[in-house]
Specification:
The chain has five helices and ten strands; from the N terminus they run H-E-E-E-E-H-E-H-E-E-E-E-H-H-E. By secondary structure, it is of the alpha+beta class. The protein has two domains: about 30 residues; about 150 residues, Mog1/PsbP, alpha/beta/alpha sandwich (Protein Transport Mog1p, Chain A), CATH 3.40.1000.10. The longest helix is centred in the first third of the chain and has 25 residues.
């Protein structure tokens, strides 16, 4: 009888633990409602996003003397997706090489601000843009004289990622509108 009592007690404990684990796994997590709202500045050309991870995509027309336009993409990968703020800043800085072989990290300017209640971390670095053309492709760009400006926007729904890249002169031409774009971000 004692053996049966212990076995019954063990089964009861196991059942209660499994029920608690099952309850924990099936209890829905409160999801943040709302989305990031923003306004594209005048002069930016809205493009059809190239993937579902792209919330918005723009062409910023080239400055006089430049041969290419700049490109800005706003990404959202989902709640708790896309990596940490610092990991993204480091990856973006790593996509730029310095003509003198120096460290892009030493040249990069980073800043953290609050915009309409949202924490926004920015990075700005110039050099040769040497990013992979597509993740895992093994093919890399090599665009000297480029500048990369990017930001991680932390919202209750997760982080959004802004990446602007193009010829330095073109990026400089659109500097004020890039700042205005960031300042337009609101989570509603």
């Amino acid at each position: 009888m004692r053996v049966m009592g212990k076995a019954t007690l063990v089964l009861l404990v196991i059942t209660l633990v499994l029920a608690a684990v099952t309850q924990e796994q099936t209890t829905p997590v409160a999801k943040a409602s709302g989305e990031l709202k923003f306004k594209a500045p005048n002069g930016w050309v809205t493009e059809k996003p190239g993937s579902t991870m792209r919330v918005a995509q723009y062409k910023l027309p080239k400055a006089a003397g430049d041969t290419e336009d700049a490109a800005l993409v706003l990404y959202y990968f989902g709640e708790r997706q896309g990596g940490t703020t610092q990991a993204n800043i480091d990856r973006w800085v790593g996509q730029m090489q310095q003509p003198d072989g120096g460290s892009s990290k030493d040249k990069a300017k980073s800043e953290t601000l609050t915009i309409n209640g949202l924490k926004v971390t920015t990075v700005d670095v110039a050099g040769s843009y040497v990013a992979e053309t597509a993740p895992g492709s093994g093919t890399f760009t090599n665009n000297p004289g480029y500048r990369l400006r990017a930001a991680v926007v932390e919202t209750p729904k997760g982080s959004y990622f802004v990446k602007l890249v193009g010829p330095q002169k073109t990026i400089a031409q659109w500097a004020d509108s890039f700042t205005a774009y960031l300042n337009s971000f609101e989570f509603k």
